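Purpose: get a first structural picture of the assembly so the mutagenesis plan has something to point at.
Setup: two entries, given in the order below. No constraints added.
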Amino acid sequence: MTYQVDIRVMPLKDLLDPQGKAVLGGLASLSLSSVTDVRIGKHISLTVEAGSAEEARSIAEEASKRLLANPVMESFEVTVTG
Amino acid sequence: MTYQVDIRVMPLKDLLDPQGKAVLGGLASLSLSSVTDVRIGKHISLTVEAGSAEEARSIAEEASKRLLANPVMESFEVTVTG
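Result (structure tokens, whole complex):
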């Protein structure tokens, strides 16, 4: 069966996010100063062939650990959407 | 009040996603060939000061249209998480 899996990879909370800070500055100069913080990460959508949702999740977690996320700087979250 | 708003910016379905294709190749060479498609976009978390969830959403939509997403190549989806 085919599963759609979403992975959100975000910079760890304790780390600076220079891209987010740059966007925050850009929003302020567009008069959108009610935005007080910005953090930017990746959103990855995988299409996975697997026997079950659990198997699809474990494939996505392995992919995240081995290729998609850098555990030193990023955390990831896997959601199987079916 | 402070709202947390998540924005998902993805390349439009009809467009090639070269970054996704590169990752798909990488996964195949890690023997993760049950992944048949990969698309990569951005995940942006905003902290917004607003009077209501509706106002927070409209600020995030304006930010997406004016700065965060390029409508020629990307679509975006806003979720207010409270």
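The first strand of chain B starts at residue 2 and ends at 11.
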